[in-house]
Specification:
Blueprint (H helix, E strand, L loop, with lengths): L1 H7 L6 E4 L3 H11 L6 E4 L3 E2 L21 E2 L2 H9 L6 E4 L3 E2 L5 E2 L2 E3 L4 E4 L6 H7 L2 E5 L21 E5 L3 E5 L6 E6 L5 H5 L8 E7 L5 H11 L9
Parallel strand pairs: 1-2, 1-5, 5-10, 10-11, 13-14
Antiparallel strand pairs: 3-4, 6-7, 8-9, 11-12, 12-13
């Protein structure tokens, strides 16, 4: 469901900075369905990648074959990302707060953390320079506190958060994440239980449809037959 919903957020012809995991699955699903002209850019330097199979990492050779360009990481960040050419960036994180800020640095106090995380990588640059950000993350009170322990990547450009139960959307007036649409069989109370603040809702909540049979076949049999990202 998360991969399908994330794929539907992408329009044909958009330039997308792709990450490994569910965003990778979503982008390649979109490219094989409604957005065949999606321009996929991977951090490793593959620009306009058209992988024949789902790449297992940003260094997968499948990204090189048929791509428009292969360059260095510095070129990806300087010439494409910082130059304003990336329309959509996918991000995730250990924590996401009500303002869409992302924490991938520490859990707890920075000087004496309970857990030290990998850090930003390129996430902060993506959060700042991509035209809009989509976050893909499962709901939990620990993962969605009212305020993150450390702001690794600012949330000003976060447009939507695609979770395992619903889609949260930025409110333009307050900058706060709000409940925008529910998955089949999910009620607002179940979403509220997964966040650490009083979650406001859009006046008219959307109801998202389940993945189509064609989408499910692509996900299960073509894109991810070995269940690298999908779990039964």
């Amino acid at each position: 469901m998360m991969a399908s919903v994330a794929a539907r957020e992408l329009a044909d012809g958009e330039v997308v900075f792709v990450g490994i995991g569910l965003p990778n699955l979503a982008c390649n699903l979109a490219r094989r369905t409604h957005a065949p002209n999606l321009v996929l850019i991977y951090e490793s330097g593959a620009v306009g990648a058209t992988p024949s199979r789902l790449p297992v990492s940003i260094g997968d050779p499948a990204l090189v074959t048929g791509s428009l360009m292969v360059c260095g990481m510095a070129d990806v960040f300087q010439l494409f990302l910082q130059n304003g050419r990336i329309e959509v960036g996918f991000l995730g994180g250990a924590q996401v707060d009500r303002q869409g800020n992302i924490n991938t640095t520490v859990i707890g106090d920075y000087k004496k953390p309970k857990v030290r995380l990998p850090g930003s990588g390129g996430a902060a640059e993506i959060a700042i320079h991509a035209q809009r950000i989509l976050i893909v993350a499962k709901l939990s009170p620990r993962g969605f506190p009212e305020r993150v322990d450390f702001v690794t990547s600012p949330g000003q450009r976060v447009a939507k958060v695609i979770t395992d139960k619903a889609v949260l959307e930025r409110d333009d007036a307050s900058g706060e994440l709000m409940l925008a649409a529910l998955y089949p069989g999910v009620e607002p109370a179940a979403v509220q239980a997964g966040v650490g603040w009083k979650l406001r809702s859009r006046q008219k909540l959307g109801r998202l449809g389940a993945p189509s049979s064609a989408e499910l076949q692509l996900l299960r049999e073509v894109l991810d037959p070995h269940r690298l990202y999908l779990r039964s």
